[in-house]
Specification:
The complex is a heterodimer of chains A (512) and B (331). Chain A has 512 residues and is an alpha/beta fold. Helices cover 32% and strands 28% of the residues of chain A. Chain B has 331 residues and is of the alpha/beta class. Chain B has eleven helices and nine strands. The chains are: A alpha/beta (512), B alpha/beta (331).
Chain lengths: 512, 331
């Protein structure tokens, strides 16, 4: 716990309010003894010895210095000023040396964060008197006397909030601090599925996906123009497609209603089908009169040449067969390769470039959870992303983008801004991806951090996933973290709302 | 190669300079931003309130400018959130113009949309300033390849008031890829500089593709416990779950959470000009140790006759008892 205090430089901040005595257990005398100097404390922390230690605090002069500006800031004459220290009746401000604030009495507004309420509160103190001025090398410190009961209460609140947070972080060895602050169910963090098969078959997920598939089927019946898509994103599904056994892996209601296939993986360069397999699938889709979208991932520099060659071959095939295919673009460098080919290759903006804040824990996020629960996330900063920027829309449009790939990710947001068409991927959404596959590192080296770029991949993802705590409904699949939109699984009727907003294509990305 | 160090408070500036940093980067998030967006839409990639990770007031930026004039080590401001909304773009441009008035003209940016906005509206925001707005394109933008560089050159820097001065490679770039990209970059801006990560916070996922929370009230998603399990039920094994320490400080080693010191020879060879020491929010003691170690490694690099000699000498001096093994650039 002291490593965390030390790491975040929190000791000096709170130690003046409370005189802190760090103690360690003296084995020879069987009791706790204090460290005699602060230097020894820091040396002790750095050495990380596995001994018992503790902390005793006694209230001292009440001065707390150097609090993070996100927690408390002062505004003087309309300009934000750094707070050097606060005390029950004083506040010390930090001014540039050339600032012209020489007045002995000033008006100030102190803005402090009520963290749990996700808002700032302002307290204006008028005509506060400067009682001391100190010049340092680079700035001037002016201490003001604030005789105000409201200020005293503000001080108490700010210090307690800061102190409580530090102690929570210091005393927690797992997510218990998150539980205290947000209600996050930390105690459930050690409950895991034993296999991906088990994970998929859990009641709330399996039944949810069945309800969702049924809803997709109903929507298709009501709206024949709605495209239903099966996402084929790994070798097993490619083979199943060629062998007509997709229904063994994907809900049959989706397979039967599908009019398009997404072939390829948006997140992993190794999961795109090899050329021969790809053209077999393209040919099969063509014979079945189904449409095709090819999903590409990021473009590694060393793979640029072979990707260019592949795109040329695809374009040539399209030209020969007089068939258009779509290309999902997940890399800005891809546009160069696709230039001049939009007569047969139609472009869609992929998930990796359509960035959005996504995390299954937004249900607990201070400032977001209440809005999400009420279905009002569009009123927050979550409601929009870069696609809402007209210049960016024009940029993408000029590069040939005619469609955006969106995801159902647990909250409402603006899905359609301009004339581009929009797809909705579900029920999984991506939260994280790594070009250096973490699963490969875990399987090859026993350590997810021992990563490297992999080209000849043995596809450990066909045998393993990383299971996360059950309550998060999230797995480490391929080189990514993917979570289920449980809100959609619980309320499939939300699909109607997506369609009303302009979604014209539903992409099913769950498979077993 | 120059050392670029992250700074979370203006009070750390002097110490980082004395430790040997050649350049510093920081975040600036004013109260007006926090009041409007909280930490739901952070201005940069440090998304917390309870730690010293941002400069929070304009007067502190003025003080920082005074420090720079005295100690001559420049500071870049990070505006590297993965994306911004349309509403936020004018606010950011105004903030940048204000910072440029003070003297901060270098910004780290990851959102292509922001680049487009700045280029398109450069005359509105920057024409009155004698300095140009210099952009360091962050690795959080996405993948780096020659084609991306060409596209950015064509589309995102169309006004003389906004120029690209640096490309920052992300954590998952190989030195071979960097070399190829640098060769392309030279055809764009001959004196473009190139930055690579070299110390701390070797994230398990790619920054540009990390959409998850990094907030005060919950840990990073990559620090959640997980368990490797088979896809098939029949293949179940009794594997304990892992409580990940990704990102957590390991004080025992220099660069305990990520280190690229072994790759310095190669980084220099391929054309990297700047080395990033991550650490906004890290203790200043830890950061100064990291900067000093990197400075020492660069000294060894300058003296060593070949790569093997450099590796042997550097490990002997800096890692006599072994290193963390958290390698940025695995061969």
């Amino acid at each position: 716990m002291f490593a965390i205090l030390h790491k975040y430089n929190l000791i000096s901040s709170i130690s003046r309010k409370y005189q802190i005595y760090f103690v360690h257990y003296d084995n020879s005398h069987s009791h706790y003894v204090p460290f005699d100097t602060r230097t020894r404390i820091e040396n002790y922390i750095c050495s990380r010895k596995e001994e018992r230690y503790g902390m005793i605090m006694e209230e001292a002069d009440g001065v707390v210095s150097d609090m993070p500006s996100g927690l408390i800031t002062c505004v003087v004459s309309g300009e934000e000023v750094g707070i050097e220290a606060i005390a029950p009746q004083y506040i010390q401000l930090r001014f540039p040396k050339n600032s012209d604030r020489k007045a002995d009495k000033i008006d100030m507004t102190i803005c402090f964060l009520r963290f749990l309420e996700n808002r700032y509160e302002r307290l204006t103190c008028s005509a506060v008197t400067c009682v001391e001025e100190k010049t340092t090398t680079f700035y001037v410190l002016r201490t003001y006397h604030v005789e105000s009961e409201k200020y005293r209460k503000l001080y108490d609140f700010v210090i307690k909030q800061y102190y409580d947070y530090i102690m929570l972080k210091v005393q927690s060895c797992d997510q218990s601090f998150a539980e205290s602050l947000t209600g996050y169910p930390a105690k459930l963090d050690d409950v895991f599925a034993q296999s991906y098969e088990d994970w998929l078959q859990k009641d709330d997920r399996a039944k949810g996906m069945e309800r969702l598939a049924e809803k997709v089927k109903d929507l298709k019946r009501e709206m024949p123009h709605l495209e239903i898509v099966v996402s084929l994103e790994n070798r097993m599904l490619y083979q199943a497609f060629l062998e007509d056994t997709l229904s063994q892996h994907i809900d049959d209601r989706i397979v039967r209603n599908a009019t398009r296939y997404y072939i390829g993986n948006q997140f992993c360069h190794n999961l795109f089908p090899e050329k021969e397999l790809l053209f077999q699938m393209l040919e099969k889709a063509r014979m079945e009169r189904k449409q095709v979208t090819l999903a590409f991932s990021y473009l590694r520099e060393e793979l640029t040449e072979e990707t260019e060659s592949l795109i040329a071959d695809i374009y040539h095939w399209c030209h020969e067969k007089k068939m258009c295919v779509e290309i999902i673009v997940n890399d800005y460098g891809f546009f160069e390769i696709l230039e001049g080919k939009q007569d047969y290759l139609r472009l869609s903006l992929g998930t990796l470039l359509n960035k959005r804040r996504k995390d299954p824990r937004y249900a607990y996020k201070i400032g977001a959870s209440a809005y999400i629960a009420k279905g009002k996330s569009k009123e927050t900063a979550l409601g929009s992303n870069a696609l809402g920027q007209p210049l960016y829309q024009t940029f993408l449009s000029e590069l040939g983008i005619i469609r955006y790939e969106q995801e159902a990710c647990g909250y409402d947001y603006e899905v359609k801004y301009a004339e581009e068409q929009c797809s909705l991927h579900m029920p999984f959404y991506q939260t994280n991806t790594s070009q250096y596959c973490p699963l490969y590192a875990l399987c090859s080296h026993g350590d997810r951090g021992k990563q490297q770029f992999v080209k000849a991949c043995p596809c450990y993802c066909e045998q393993y996933i990383c299971a996360y705590p059950e309550h998060l409904h999230m797995v480490g699949k391929y080189n990514s973290l993917m979570a289920l939109d449980m809100r959609l699984l619980a309320t499939p009727e939300l699909l109607e709302s997506y369609v009303q907003q302009g979604i014209d294509r539903l992409v099913w990305n769950a498979a077993w | 190669m120059k050392i670029v160090a992250g700074m979370g408070s203006i009070k750390d500036y002097e110490a980082l300079v004395k430790a040997g940093a050649d350049e510093i980067f920081c975040g600036y998030v004013p109260l007006s931003w926090n009041e409007t967006y909280g930490n739901l839409a952070p201005l940069n990639r440090r998304e917390v309130f309870f730690y010293h990770v941002q400069i929070g007031t304009i007067s502190d930026m003025v003080i920082l400018k005074d420090m720079i004039e005295a100690l001559h080590i420049p500071v870049t401001v990070a505006l590297n959130a993965l994306y911004y909304t349309q509403e936020q773009l004018p606010r950011i441009a105004e903030m940048m113009a204000q910072l440029m008035e003070i003297g901060f003209c270098d910004f780290i940016i990851a959102d292509v949309g922001l680049l487009l906005f700045l280029s398109h509206h450069a005359k509105t925001y920057f024409a009155g300033n004698k300095q140009v707005c210099r952009i360091h394109i962050s690795g959080e933008l996405g993948e780096w390849n020659s084609n991306t560089i060409k596209l950015l050159q064509k589309k995102c820097f169309t006004d003389e008031h906004v120029v690209c001065s640096r490309l920052i490679f992300h954590r998952k770039n190989t030195t071979a890829d960097m070399k190829s990209c640098i060769q392309t970059g030279k055809t764009w801006v001959p004196n473009l500089t190139y930055e690579a990560f070299v110390m701390n916070e070797l994230c398990h996922f790619t920054g540009g593709f990390c959409n998850s929370l990094h907030c005060d009230e919950m840990s990073h998603i990559c620090q959640l416990p997980y368990k490797k399990v088979p896809c098939n039920k029949a293949a179940c094994e009794n594997i304990p779950y892992v409580k990940e320490l990704c990102g957590e400080e390991t004080e025992e080693y220099i660069g305990g959470t990520g280190c690229g010191l072994c790759a310095l020879w190669q980084l220099q060879k391929v054309g990297i000009t700047h080395l990033k020491v991550v650490g906004r929010g890290k203790s200043v003691q830890g950061m100064t140790q990291d900067v000093q170690a990197l400075r020492q490694a660069l000294h060894i690099l300058a003296e060593a006759p070949d790569e093997q000699a450099y590796l042997t000498w550097m490990k002997q001096e800096l890692f006599p008892n072994g290193c963390s093994g958290n390698c940025y650039y695995v061969k």
